[in-house]
Structures are given as structure tokens and as C-alpha cells.
Amino acid sequence: MINWNNLDTLNSFKNLSSKKAVVLKDAMQGENGAKRVKEYSMPMACGLSFNYAAKAVNDEIIDALADLAKEAELNEKFEALYNGEVINTGEKRLVLHQLTRGQLGNDVVFDGVNKREFYLGEQKKIAEFANKVHAGEITNAKGEKFTTVVQIGIGGSDLGPRAMYLALENWAKVNNTFKMEAKFISNVDPDDAAGVLNSIDVAHSLFVLVSKSGTTLETLTNESFVKDALKKAGLDASKHMIAVTSETSPLAKSSDYLAAFFMDDFIGGRYSSCSAVGGAVLSLAFGPEVFDRFLKGAAEEDKLATNKDVRKNPAMLDALIGVYERNVLGLPCTAVLPYSQALSRFPAHLQQADMESNGKSVNRFGEPINYVTGPVIFGEPGTNGQHSFYQLLHQGTDIVPLQFIGFKNSQIGLDVDIQGSTSQQKLCANVAAQIVAFACGKDDENKNKKFEGGRPSSIIIGEKLTPESLGALLSHFENKIMFQGFVWNVNSFDQEGVQLGKVLAKKVLAHETDGALKAYSDLLNI
Amino acid sequence: MINWNNLDTLNSFKNLSSKKAVVLKDAMQGENGAKRVKEYSMPMACGLSFNYAAKAVNDEIIDALADLAKEAELNEKFEALYNGEVINTGEKRLVLHQLTRGQLGNDVVFDGVNKREFYLGEQKKIAEFANKVHAGEITNAKGEKFTTVVQIGIGGSDLGPRAMYLALENWAKVNNTFKMEAKFISNVDPDDAAGVLNSIDVAHSLFVLVSKSGTTLETLTNESFVKDALKKAGLDASKHMIAVTSETSPLAKSSDYLAAFFMDDFIGGRYSSCSAVGGAVLSLAFGPEVFDRFLKGAAEEDKLATNKDVRKNPAMLDALIGVYERNVLGLPCTAVLPYSQALSRFPAHLQQADMESNGKSVNRFGEPINYVTGPVIFGEPGTNGQHSFYQLLHQGTDIVPLQFIGFKNSQIGLDVDIQGSTSQQKLCANVAAQIVAFACGKDDENKNKKFEGGRPSSIIIGEKLTPESLGALLSHFENKIMFQGFVWNVNSFDQEGVQLGKVLAKKVLAHETDGALKAYSDLLNI
After folding, report:
1. Which of A166, A266, B144, B157 has the smallest set of CB atoms within 10 Å of its CB?
2. Is residue A2 in some structural domain?
């Protein structure tokens, strides 16, 4: 029987809070610093490693975090989750996104259906469909091959798949697995759909309509937008569109689509990149084998998240350090800084995954809690960020914990040697330099040129961004967020906070408003 | 004689801090709420308006903010700035970006040069060059027209111009002023340049190399990358490249470029969108007339920033409310949320403009200060953000002040009517709904469905995003940041915090490292 307790009731948290803080600037000096870099590191899957030397922790604090993990029963809770318990208590749902890429525990059977088999079956159906499209067996009405795939979806149906597509686009081109260009339409702003439609050849485009419920306002509106455009071009919309939805949704059995692929209520939108939501567009863009490799990377990393030793469980330790920074050190934000242009939208995906999961003020029983939960997440790729907001990170009045990501090798492999080093070496040199600059700072008589240091960071280092390492990276962060939700005792898998806005927007459109809402509606000419 | 005093020494700040806080949730109820929406609003330039009804202020607090503006001599400081005083004291430089788009005060003459004439002269040179490119008078070696312009620059030479390009791309297409597609290369990650080069036809591309100093590592590296690619394609690089730099830079008189256009040390990178840095790429992409209209919008908004009445000075009041939220209410972040897909990268630009300007811990005399300065800035377009991080904004444990932007009309004008409303109406209904949902919240017996409310926001509303209104929008935020810097008594125009990382990266590349820096370099195989 698992105990779900608030963080501030745990003795191990009180113990953690009483530990003497690490003076990071001192800890990272000289040979002791070098020793930390070597020791405060652990392997991840697919050649990645997690290094936390520049975090404000020491052996004593890590031991206290391990005690917290134990008292909060993090391993047991994850086990319950992957064995199919109702972890999303608010919505009374299982939480099964890990099952889309592997099986960590027992068979999960719901309503007589083995869920692993269900997800694998959908993946297989998508693979067969994608192969037929690539082979020219499924074509437009004129028998011509589709060249472009356009995902229509918002939130989890957009950010994750889009970030993954951008992460692998150049890799696929270099490795000759690039099949179709992908585009994305998400915003209800009509300029989004119109802009994308103006940039493609609709006659050779296949649209993937993604909505679990089949009722998402933005997505249905954009579907109509696209259907109008297809019709105006003299095309049969039903021959250009597939659906990704749940089996019970109005889209599931419609003849409006060439095919429908399914996910279910046990896959949250922000955790759906490994389900049909990411699977359809990524398999069409890069081929089903690439998507399968991505899943394998994620599954491999998932296994590490079951480790009971926090020093061998990267997601769990990353999560615990984050809780320490948030609830003991009192730091309200976290920046995600990938030194990889291919990961340009990965921070935006994590922004959703993290903030929508853990931006909660009640525990999983709906009771108000007395401590802070999920931080604000933001980030841009380095080195770009260095020439942008790093000024505040280095010399601002607030400390922002940092999560770096870096790879030893580029994806495309094209490079130039300038002033004795390649661009890739310059990129890597910059991330190494930043970690040390943030941690150690630099004194200067001119206080304007002084760097206080003591600004904590960790880094995930990989050989190269590939389908496998991307999958592992995604899994790491999904599991980190899950563990933090467990520690905070919140339900990381619902999102009641998005409802009120929807309700009020409907009132505005129905002209059923008064007071301030009517006044704003008037200002905006609605 | 201007007095530069720390915020915490000002009596008006002490007075402000003692004011009773507004209970926003109550203030925004019923007819009083509607009254606030009508009254707490002021016109901006180019049909925009600034509405601060949903900010946690009342007449008494606004009066106290007006007193603060007076005691902090905000008008006088702005006047000194635009009349050419050395406002960037650390680097002993004038601050003249407003002069690229208009003249608010006296002639500014430096080293015998009238700076307004200098900036206008460069704008004219760019216009002539762009017109010749568009007319096919300046072509590639084969006499064929250039079809693509590629900006090579990072930080201020990238984020602002890129955000402005994206903001006007669809507008220009609809209004038949779209001349050339623009692409951007910024990151030293070789996959950035390689990816862009793979996506264009280099034989018909014109590259704009942008570096004020002519020494930016990333930009020079990417220049070599591009020159290599041009050479490999059998092309003469010097016939495909122009430079935007300062007159004293090594790039200025090089025969490597078709032409060079100049800015100077008095235009900070993050404030350079209106100078040649933005001017070259935007004039080439959309025609010089569009760029000129953009400047006129910015100049018109600048004029409003000189108003001595805070109730008629949108940038100043916006700035003061931000200071109140940061230094009295203690809120560490601000989200920028444009309900316009065209503004998708505007938040990333403001992230640099704001965080690099005011993320400082010393005052303009280099003395440590005892209060917080610039907040963390982040944001994504709505409605996308609603399906992402808004959960935390609504129900998270921390309050994040919000800055909405919305337009009554779309840019492209293509729309569909679904369920009785257009996409544009849905977009506007959503932003109206969000403001009220954040401010007023909603009670519920189920605490998981309860919204506390009391979450402050303002909104800038426009008719349509055009070159003029985009210019006004940019000016508003630049001036807001400037006023906040004045209040915090920091130098908003230097960025010493970016230096240490550069120095250490050079050491890594020269293999002159020890301790932690060597250990990280080893991990990254440098």
C-alpha cells in the first residue's frame, strides 16, 4: 500500500532542509572541482550521461535526497504507475505513456485489452500506412505521391511532435531516411493555417488531424480551414487527411479520413510524443524504422528510472535536486539550454510538459498545499542564449538553476576549422565555459565586471543527437517531471487550470457576458 | 543636473511600498470591473492602445507611481538620452537607437557628425541597394536575380530582425510587397549553418553579415562556413555578401563584400532592429518603403514616451507597474503572450531586450544594490500557450504577471466561420476570456477546479499587425525597458555579464585549462 503524503509532512524533507548549504563557488575550485566533475556523473541510456557536479549538492545532501526518495516511495509509485494503477486520480485514469515504448512491469489489461499490445498494434498500423505512402501505394487522387505531411494539433499534439521533428530533420536528411517534409498548424489565429497553406503544395500534402477527444476547438477549426483550402483547390479532402484520436471520439469512424490511428485516455497530451500523436507524423516524415529507434531509446532510459539507487537513476536524482532548489533554496525558475540547434523547440516542449504537469496548488486529493510546486521553465539553444538572456543569468539579482544539454558531435557533420578549432569544438567549449563561469564566477575590482558565481547547473552530455538519444532525452525529462510530481504529492496528469478560460471564451462568442468580460469583448470588437 | 539615485533611497518608493495592495479579484468584479476596463486604458501610436485594468493598481497606486516617476526624473533622463548625453556610462557611450527612426530633441553631433543624418544616410544607402537588387540591377555573376536573403548574426543581430521578419512576412505577401525570402543563421553549432544552406539555393542567395565589432566569434565562423559553401558551388563569395558593421570594424572596407552599411557604438545590439542591422534584411525582404513605415510607427510611439503625465505615457506606466510588481509585490517573472502567430518570436526578442538590459546587480556607478532588478521574461503566442504552460499561470503556486497583445483583425484575412464565429473572433474571445479568468478566478467546491484569480495582466490591443503598429510595439517595449532601468538606476545599455563565458571558452579552445574547466572539456572531447 503506497502512502501519498505532502512533502512538508516528511521527516526526510525536514532533515534535508536542515543540511548546511553547499557553497558551490568554493566546491568547484581547483582539483576538488575536477574531482566533482568526474564523480558527480552517471550513465544514461544511448551514450548519454548526466553530470551534476555544478549543482549545489554534496554527498551529505545527496544522501538526504535518497532518504527523501525512499520516504516519498518514488520507486513504488513509479512501479504502481507502470503496472497500471489509477495514478491520475482526478480523472480516474491510468497513466501509460511509458507503455507506448516498452513494458517495465506486468501486463496492463483494461476492459479486456492488453494495452501494450494495443499501442504496438497502432504503431504497426501507422508503419504500414507510412510505408504505403512512401512506396506510392497510397497517393492523391491523381496517383501522385504525397511529399508533405501537415500535423494539425495544439498543445501536446503540437509541441512534442514538432520539437522531435526539428530534432531529427537534419539527421534524417544526412542518413537518407528523410521521406516527407513536415509542417505544423496549431494556433486558432487564422494567419497560422493560412501561412502554412500558402507555403505548401496542398495537392501533394497529407494532413494529420490530432485530437484525443475529437473536440479541441482550435484543431477542429483548423481542420475546416484546411478542408476549405482543399475544396477550393478542387481536391477531395477525405483523400488527404488522416486522424489520430481515441477510439470513442467522433473522428474515429468518420469517412472524412483516409485512416484513423488511436491513442487513449491513458496518454496525456504532453506525454504523447511516443504514441500515435508523434508516431504518425514522425513515421511519415522519417520512416517507421526511425520512429521505432526513437521509442527504443526512450524505453532504455525508462529502465534506468526504475533503479532504487538515486546515484544510478538520472531522472530521479535530477528531480530531487530540482525539488531541493525549489523548496529549500527557494528558486522559482529553471532554464533548459540545449547546445544544439536541432533542439531549438525542445525547451518549448518541456515548458508544457513540466509547467502543465506540476503547476498545481492542491495535492492529489484536492487539498491546498503549503509549499511551492513546479517552477517556470524557459530556454533557448546555446550559443544563441549567451548573446541574449545569459546576462541576467550571470549577473541578475535572482539565481536561475540551469539544465544544459550538449553533444560531442554535430548531426550533419559539415564543419569548418577557423582559428584552430571547428564550430562543433567552439560549441562544446562554450558550454563547458558557461558551466564553470556560472558556478565559479570571477572577482573584479570593477564590480560591474564581477561575477558572483554560485549559479547551479547540470549537463546531459551525448555523443550525437540521434533517434535513440532523442528518445532517451525525452524519457529522462518525462520521468523527472513525474518524480517531482510524486514528491510534491500533486497529480501531474490532469490540467484543470486550462478549463476556465475555455468556458469564458465560449461565453464571449455566445455574447453571454457582462462586467469586465463584456468590456474586454467590446474593446476587441467581438 | 540629473540625480541618479538608487530606488530604495527614494521617498516616493517608500510611499509606494506602504500603499494598501489592490485585491484584483474584487476590483474586477461586476460593473466596477467594466468601469476599470474603460478607464484604465490609454491610446498608443498607430491605432494601438494600452489597457491596464487587470493590473493590481488603483488611482492611489498610480498616483504613487507618478510620484516615483517624478522623483526618479524619468522624463529628464529620457530627454538627456535622446539629446545625446553619455547614458551608457560603463562604456562611455551615447544611446541613440531612437535617433534611427526620428528626432525627439536637439541635433546630436558627435565627432562632427550629425548622427540623425548619419543614420538616415545609411537607411537611404540600404534603400538604394535593395531597390537595385529588386530591379535586377545587382545580381549574381550570371546576371540572375537574388531570390533569398540570409542574415548571419547572433543575439541582437538575429533575434530582433528575425522576429520583425516573421511578424511581417505574411502581411507583405498579402500586400504584394514581399520581395525575397529571408533566412537566418546564428548559432555556432555547425548544424545551424549547414541546415540553412541545405534549405536554400545558394546561387541566388545574398548573405548579410552583421557584426558591429566585426569580431563576433559565431558570426565570423558562420561567414567562413558560408564562404566555403559558396566556393564549393563555384561562386564568388564577394558577389553574394554584404556587411552591416561599424565604420571602424575590420569588415568596413573589405573587398570581401558587395557593399557595407553602417551602424555605430551608440546602437546596442538588442536595440538595433531600427538601424542597418534590421534595415538591410527587412528592406531586402519587403522593400525599403515597408521598413520606412516600420520606423515611422516606432517614431510615433517614441513621442508618447516623452509625455510627462504617466497616464498618457504607455511605456512609462507599463514600466512603473512592472517595478511595482517586482519590487513591492515581489514577483520574479513576466510572461509576454501575443495572440498573433506572426509574433511567434517577439517574446524571444523581448527576452533578450529586457533580460540583457536590466539583469544587473550593480547600479550605474558599479555599486551593489539591495533590491531586485529585471525579471525573467518568457512567452509563446496564444492560443498555443493556453494548451501549454497556462496551467501553471492559472493554478501554480507562484504568480506570474502577464503582458497580452492582441489584434482585432488578422493579417492575411483568410478565415472560416465555424459554430457561428470566425477564427479571428475565437482568437480574440480567448484573450478576453483569459484576462478575466486570471484576474477574477472561479470558486469551486472541488479545490482542484478552483481558480484563485488575482493574477495581474495588461493588454496592448491593435487593429492589425502592420509595419507601423509593429514599429510602435517595438518602441513601446524598448522604452519600457529603458524606464525600468532608470528606476532601478542600472545601466541598461552594457552587458558585462556575457564576457566571462567568452574568456573561458577561448581558454578551453587553447587548451589552457585546469580543474573543473579541464574536466568538463575532457568530458566533451574538446
Report:
1. B144
2. no
Residue range(s) defining the domain that contains residue B503? 497-526
% of chain A beyond a pLDDT of 70: 100
Nearest residue of B to residue A521 by CA position?
A: B432
> In this complex, do B501 and A192 lie within 8 Å of one another by their Cβ atoms?
no
In this predicted structure, the answer to whether residue B253 has a pLDDT above a threshold of 90 is no
Distance of residue B435 Cα from the nearest chain A Cα, in angstroms: 8
Does residue B25 surpass a pLDDT of 90?
Answer: yes
Residues of chain B numbered 216-255 and touching chain A (CB < 8 Å): 217-218, 220-222, 224-225, 228
Of B271, B293, B315, the position where a domain reaches its end is: B293
Whole-angstrom Cα distance, residue B192 to residue A410? Answer: 10
Residues with Cβ within 8 Å of residue B387, at least 6 apart in sequence: A154, A155, A156, A158, A218, A269, A352, A498
Looking at the structure, do residues A390 and A413 belong to the same domain, yes or no?
yes
Contact list, B435 vs chain A (CB under 8 Å):
516, 520
Which residue, among A103, A412, A134, has the nearest Cα to A288 in the 3D structure? A134
Instruction: Give me the CATH number covering residue B230.
Output: 3.40.50.10490
Active site includes B502?
yes
- Do A137 and A223 belong to one domain? yes
Q: Read off the DSSP letter of residue B454.
A: -
Check whether residue A200 and residue A219 sit in a common domain: yes
Single residue among B255, B272, B293 that ends a domain in this structure: B293
Tally of domains in chain A: 3
**Minimum distance, in Å, between the CA of residue A194 and any CA atom of chain B:** 7
State the maximum Cα–Cα separation within chain B, in Å, rounded to a whole number: 74
Question: Strands A41-43 and A49-51, how do they pair?
Answer: antiparallel
Does some domain include residue A213?
A: yes
Are the CB atoms for A465 and A412 separated by under 8 Å? no
Torsion of CA B433, B439, B444, B450, to 10 degrees: 100
Indicate whether A107 and A86 sit together in one domain.
Answer: no
Summarised one tens digit per residue, pLDDT across range A426-480 is: 999 999 999 999 999 999 999 999 999 999 999 999 999 999 999 999 999 999 9
β-strand partners of B266: none
Q: Could you tell me if the ipTM is greater than 0.95?
A: yes
- Say whether both A283 and A169 belong to one domain: yes
pTM above 0.90, yes or no: yes
Min Cα–Cα distance to chain B from A293, Å: 21
- Closest residue to B53, CB basis, from A384, A514, A516: A516
Sequence-ordered alpha helix ranges (H) in B135-209? 159-174, 190-198
Torsional class of B369: left (φ above 0), alpha (ψ -120 to 50), beta (otherwise): beta
Count CB-CB contacts under 10 A for residue A496: 22
Does A512 have pLDDT greater than 90?
Answer: yes
Task: Note whether A334 and A401 are within 8 A (CB).
Answer: yes
Cβ contact, residue pair A154, B442, below 8 Å = no
Task: Check CB contact of A28 with chain B, cutoff 8 Å.
Answer: yes
Which pLDDT tens digit goes with each residue over A7-60? 999 999 999 999 999 999 999 999 999 999 999 999 999 999 999 999 999 999
A87 shares contact with chain B (CB less than 8 Å): no
Q: How far apart are CA A262 and CA B480, in angstroms?
A: 49
Q: Catalytic: which of B312, B442, B502, B506?
A: B502
Task: Measure the CA–CA gap between A493 and A482, rounded to whole angstroms.
Answer: 9
